[in-house]
């Protein structure tokens, strides 16, 4: 029945773990980032804390291919978006690749590592998801599942604009002030 509905066979026999709240999710995410050679993080709200930024910078320094698509003009929390821009700028300068999705508001929350591990669930890449909200996700150790997600993400880049570090570094004072003001309440975003 599932194959008829989605047009693909159900993929069985995978190693699956349920992760609850930041206490389980954050350590798993940190371990995955540290072990990665290729990392995709898809999130509706991208405002990583200093620990995650430092870890992503270290991964990039090791040569990890890090790609993060984020909402573009269609975002339902402009304050959350602005609060994350300074971190995004630091990551862009280090070579992390960002795309702003322009088709609609993407609400996917997923991470793939080396096309072998997929983590899918409710947490965003922000403080609130890792420290305040009740979150849950599924970690699936499956090249088939992670590969299908990576294919889907690759397809989504057609509807997104890759960001440029130089453009981000030259954003104006007004934008930077907005970002700093939003950072004052980032734990609530």
List keywords for this structure.
two-stranded parallel sheet, single chain, 24% strand, eight-stranded mixed β-sheet, Endonuclease, Chain A, 189 residues, alpha/beta, 9 helices
What does this structure look like?
By secondary structure, this protein is of the alpha/beta class. The chain has one domain: Endonuclease, Chain A (2-Layer Sandwich). The protein contains nine helices and ten strands. It has an eight-stranded mixed beta sheet, sandwiched between helices. It has a two-stranded parallel ribbon with strand order 3-8. Strand 6 and strand 7 form a beta hairpin. Helix 3 packs parallel to helix 5.
Distance between the termini: 40 Å
Note the beta-strand portion.
15-25%
Domain module tally: 1
CATH class: Alpha Beta
Q: What's the alpha carbon Rg, rounded to whole Å? A: 16 Å
Number of strands: 10
CATH homology-level superfamily: Endonuclease Chain A
* Element-by-element helix/strand order: HEHEEHEHHEEEEHEHEHH
Residues in helices, as a percent range: 40-55%
Tell the overall outline.
globular
Overall average pLDDT: 84
What is the level-2 CATH architecture name? 2-Layer Sandwich
Class computed from helices, strands and strand pairing: alpha/beta
- Tell me about the biggest sheet? 8 strands, mixed
Helix count equals 9
Strand order of the largest sheet: 1-9-7-6-2-4-5-10
CATH topology: Endonuclease, Chain A
Low-confidence stretches: none
